[in-house]
Amino acid sequence: SDxxxxxxxxxxxxxxxxxxxxxxxxxDQYEEGVWTYVAAARIADALSDIxxxxxxxxxxxxxxxxxxxxxxDLLWNxxxxxxxxxxxxxxxxxxxxxxxxxxxxxxxxxGDGPALSLVRLLPHAVVPRVHPERGIVSYxxxxxxxxxxxxxxxxxxxxxxxxxxxxxSVSPTRASWMANLLDRNQWxxxxxxxxxxxxxxxxxxxxxxxxxxxxxxxxxxxxNRAKGEGTHEPYFVPxxxxxxxxxxxxxxxxFDKLAMSA
Length: 262
Prior knowledge:
The chain has eleven helices and eleven strands. It is an alpha+beta fold. Helix 4 (34-48) crosses helix 6 (84-98). The model has no long low-confidence stretch (mean pLDDT 80).
């Protein structure tokens, strides 16, 4: 890109800059969002079940299947213990959730020659470094406290299209972020309501004074009869005292209508 476009996207003319890693919150939707999980799993299953083959182009003839070749072996077994099905599934899920996927190409001890394996990298731990003229120059990979540098030639970077950033990416999960956030907050609000809500289910108002012992006996009796999860307990108010609810109910929240409008 030219210097103007580079600076618009956050860079400084003539200098390298880092591209922010994939947001982990997007990847967490695979575990936290039921519909995100279902959609991602089904798409990834379909893609990883497609039979892959290595083909050789022959001029004037039909392409030939290559039965024996190092790259064919790489397709079937990208890395030890990982089949091509598993690899494609993981890359597909990465793309659906974050719009990016990375794999390290391991080589021989000298660091040259064809790739011997493809090892998936955690998208939220990869920080690409780019230069306005030389493009991608290196990667910083920090899956734990110790970060390591990876050369540009040793990493494959798949990314979805972004209309506003040269090295950006827009995933389906990012596009549906607000709807997913609403579903997650709805689930958390429901969980908190049943676990910690202190709104009384029963309010007792006496026309004449009740002793503390009698009040405790009635309270304990009602509690034993209808004890549920949470802190719901009967509540006593003096005579001529009006109680008004300050909290919202499930009906008041109307999460379903919010989800439809989003």
